[in-house]
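User: Protein folding is very new to me. Would you mind checking the protein record under this note? It all follows right here:
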Amino acid sequence: MICRAVAVLAVLLCCVGAWAEQAEIPGEWKELTRSGITVFYQEETKDLAPQILDLAEKMLRGKPAVSQSPEIDRLAKNKDKVFQFVSSQLGLKEPSELVRGAMDSLLEAPKKLAALCPDPHRLRVWRKETLKKLLSEGKAIPGFTYDKASDVVTFQWNAYVGTKDKGGTPPPDTCAPIVIKDDPKKTPLDQAREIIDECTTQLREVMQMMAGGVVCHEAAEGLMAYDLGLRGPFRRWFCEGAANLIAERCLREFVGAKAARDFAEVQSTKEHESQKSQADLIAWRADEWEKEMPQKWVEEIQSARYAFSTHEVRELVKRHGPNTLPDIFKELRKVKWTDENEGIPDQAIYDAIKKVTGEDMKAVLAGYSKEIKDEFRGIVVGDVEVGECGKDKEGGWQVINPSGTSPVTVSGTKGICVQFHYAVMNPPAALKIELKSPSGEEKTFITTTHTDKLTSANVDALGTQFGSPTERFAPGYHRMFIYINDRLLKMIDIKVTGK
């Protein structure tokens, strides 16, 4: 999906910039080439190399090698105009440095991504034992690492291989490695077939990331968040839909009508009509808020949400004219940020739409919420941390070493606290936190309960303390339960050492 592509591109820019050259591959290599496919081999695999070439030729027929996207090329050639265009769609008279920096990075990323990808059209055949011997001798082989303790050879080709100045492994060879091991259940060709198939799948995903529409979408959506302050937990339907429409316009303007039509077709609602009443666009959580909620999104519903969000923004523009989006963004620029981190409230989106178009967009979107299955609908909770707490000099509570992991290890000589961020679309919501602690008798517990109300529609913080600096919690495992409206949101194990 589009939302995942930008993460790969962003990490890539950070991770590969320090490498200017590939490390030399040890050994004497020969090659066989046919139909645009090259197999590199050594003397010990000379009999296997022609068979692998035959196999690759059959498997890769009609599948292109990694190359720079023509769409990216056209956008890059017109990047100054693209900057101006995206800026105008976001209500800017002139491109801001933020726009320019984001677009520059996103246009450059596919080139680096293409340079990193092992290409199944270029195959390098290794015997595993030979590879292990070289690595154990300290030889640097791009993309490979060897752990002597476990006697395991690992190949990693993605952006996380690290950079030279940070002590990472060398950038991977652009050839896809065919590592043949002695396996009574799989022949060398079966092993090669699996590797080629895996690399082909990765190649297809990479090519999707290199599409111009993805770059335009992510640039627009990122700028909405960081330039406009659209960071609220329920902004997603508008931001995804608007970013898709801006990307489509950008492709039509600078790449061509066909590219724009192809991009729009991906967002078609035709295949999702049966899911319309379940899409619940108003309560669609932003991705960063979804991770700590117990009900994860379903891929089919997620695709429907992208499609219907794009449809609603497109229809809004059709009803009110081509300047609708820029005018809405101009209104949003007038809104005061809640704070530097949280940006502007989600309600500001509906207020801006109402002011520009006269429409109550919540009423328009109501048809998507007829079959609500999410028991925590309209609620987000994130950044949940548990730790020790004690009283400061003024008598207030002070958090000590909070942790988001489970189990959380504490000494138990001070209070135990939990803290988190939250927002409730239609406040209030009832909060109950239970801490079950060992009583000292086998299989019996003491339950301490704290109740509160979640009252903020905007992102807010809440913290709760159990115990006091004079109490000692019994060593062993304690368990915390967080309920919202009497439904279990999260369970956290806490290990008390007693020290």
